[in-house]
Automatic annotation (TrEMBL):
Residues 1-22 are annotated as: Disordered. This is Tyrosine aminotransferase. Pathway: Amino-acid degradation; L-phenylalanine degradation; acetoacetate and fumarate from L-phenylalanine: step 2/6. One of its GO terms (biological process) is L-phenylalanine catabolic process.
């Protein structure tokens, strides 16, 4: 051993690794020392060592921010101790226990567990049988699907992440609805992708401002996100409006990411076709899952449906999705094992009961708040949400929607999410999944709060 602590006669042939030589100083010609450990050579790069610990989060971690958390975490939320808290802010239909999933769904999961067939790894894109079940459930003559067109994911959130990741590079931009689901921006910005917000129009039941949306498209626009039915608006686009959206996408050759997690959660009298069923040339990645329609968000089962019009995506996008899915080795296998039974055996009466409840609660909320001066609720047509506009002239003591909703908690123990969390100020969002008596009570408190503010300001 020489004075540097490096063996002068390596334990392998003197050509070193990859057929390259070792010079007389025991240093590889590529600048690495070869250190013999248990008879093997490992490269030890020559460089100065760190003098102190300096561990910092990655740029991706630093660039990851959920706009909802950014708003809510900064609010001073101290409920009135004399009134029990009513949270109308959480988009989880299971919170209050009044909307259980169907017994058939539970039995499907129990059957998958008892079978002992789903305790190991599945293919990263999901079991073929489970993917086939999803494709059968969503396939239609206008938008046919096969198992190869389905990627199973860990919830709809991961489906959205995979779709954005496969379509976009750092420096690209995506078009996102405003107001819209905050996760789109959280995911995109962390990946170095710019977000351009296109306006929705409350006076037109939250239809897209198509002219504004189209004006944002440029050569680096790699994806248009369409959320239908909508979180946070509860809006449902009709066939004609969806066709107009497709025309814009077609004109500029921009693929669509369709967030359809609330598909079929549509109130009676409304019709909500999938956007893929109307597309003749625009390729679409449709993201969905069990979370909302089956009322099991914690089961983390989502999917991407690949609608590849005219082979625009081809094999490359599909292979890209497969590669990306391999990063976490797929969705929960137990739920995958139950998926076919869940999709085929859940009775229509369960879906109808859920939708009937959501519509009734929405009507109660809309009716109660429509007569409150300064409030302008927009009646939803589906999903689980209702947006309420604030006429700030009626509430001069408040700076904005965050201030308003913060004081509403302080005085009335009712928490609504300020729409600044969706980058749409002077609105707030109400979740309509709470028990009916709680919805009536909450609306009464909101009315009392607004009346007191108007009196005090006058």
């Amino acid at each position: 051993m020489n004075g540097t602590g490096v063996h002068s006669k390596p334990a392998v042939n003197t050509k070193g690794l990859n057929g390259t030589g070792v010079n007389g100083k025991g240093v590889h010609s590529n600048g690495f020392h070869h250190v013999s450990v248990n008879g093997s050579l490992y490269p030890a790069k020559v460089k100065s060592r760190r003098l102190r610990w300096d561990v910092k989060p990655s740029e991706m971690a630093n660039n990851t921010l959920n706009p909802i958390r950014a708003i809510v975490d900064g609010m001073k939320l101290t409920p009135n101790v004399d009134k029990p808290m009513i949270a109308l802010s959480i988009g989880d239909p299971t919170v209050f226990g009044n909307l259980p999933t169907d017994e058939a769904v539970l039995q499907a999961l129990k059957g998958a567990i008892d079978s002992q067939k789903y305790n190991g790894y599945a293919p990263s894109v999901g079991y073929l049988k489970s993917r086939q079940a999803v494709s059968n459930f969503y396939s239609c003559p206008e938008a046919p699907l096969d198992a190869e067109d389905v990627i199973l994911t860990s919830g709809c959130s991961q489906a959205i992440e995979l779709a954005i990741s496969v379509l976009c590079n750092p420096g690209d931009n995506i078009l996102v609805p405003c107001p819209g689901f905050s996760l789109y921006k959280t995911l995109a910005v962390s990946l170095g992708i710019k977000v351009k917000l296109y306006n929705l129009l409350p006076e037109k039941s939250w239809e897209i401002d198509l002219q504004h949306m189209e004006s944002l498209i440029d050569e680096r626009t790699s994806c248009l996100i369409v959320t239908n039915p909508s979180n946070p608006c509860g809006s449902v686009f009709n066939r004609e409006h969806l066709q107009k959206i497709l025309k814009v996408a077609s004109r500029h050759c921009v693929p669509i990411l369709a967030d359809e997690i609330y598909s079929d959660m549509v109130f009676p009298g409304c019709h909500c076709p999938s956007i893929a069923s109307l597309s003749s040339d625009v390729p679409i990645l449709s993201c969905g899952g069990l979370a909302k329609r089956w009322l099991v968000p914690g089961w983390r089962m989502g999917w991407i449906l690949i609608h590849d019009r005219n082979e625009v995506f081809g094999s490359e996008i599909r292979q890209g999705l497969v590669k990306l899915s391999q990063r976490i080795l797929g969705a929960c296998t137990i739920v995958q094992g139950a998926l076919e039974s869940i999709l085929n055996n859940t009775p229509q009466s369960f879906y109808n009961k859920t939708i009937s409840f959501l519509k009734s609660n929405s009507e109660i909320c809309f009716s109660e708040l429509s007569t409150v001066p300064g409030l302008n609720p927009v009646m939803p047509s589906g999903a689980m949400y209702l947006m309420v506009g604030l006429d700030m002239d009626h509430f001069p003591d408040f700076k904005n929607d965050v201030d308003f909703t913060e004081r509403l908690v302080t005085e009335q123990s009712v928490f609504c999410l300020p729409a600044s969390a969706f980058e749409y100020p002077n609105f707030f969002r109400i979740v309509v999944t709470v028990p009916e008596e709680m919805m009536v009570e909450a609306c009464g408190r909101i009315r009392e709060f607004c009346q007191l503010q108007c009196v005090e300001s006058s």
